[in-house]
Structures
1.
Amino acid sequence: MDIATKSCDVCGRQNLAANDWLVAIVRPEYEGILFVPAEAAASSRNPDFIYEDICGQECGHKRLSRWFDELATTQESEAA
């Protein structure tokens, strides 16, 4: 992870230190979200997945909440 060029995809904060950063990983056609330490996601990335840089716990919670909202919207539209 190049800490000089990353910013949080939730709040936009610039990454000044690599500690405590996460990466949220989603695959659009599947229901699910995975949070991993930034160092674990720094190696090769699968082009079928979406990777989002998350600056810490608060933004991780916000991103998870957004994912639940997206899931509920999807399930409501499928039920209609």
2.
Amino acid sequence: MGLFVYGELCKPPVLLAVLGRVPTAEPALLSGFRRVINVDTGYFRAVPCDKEVIVGLLLDGIEAAELEVLDDFENVDGGEYGRVRVDVEMLDSGRQESAWAYVAA
């Protein structure tokens, strides 16, 4: 399953540092969420908002072990983000894909 990203994880140097590789990616849209800045950390968070859409990337081929590394990077255990399943729309084709995404906890 892919991973929808919309902030720091859109940057190839960050992905390379965290995962040791840069996965292939396609532009995608996440409906029902809004991207806001966390003033304490300076990083973006996705918060539910019915009429909003976040533009981001769908990373392909993310392995289970990589998700564990990404959970640490996103501080899931610390309660800052939660990893949830979402449906995203691929920007180029309009097809729907199921993916993971990190959203505000």
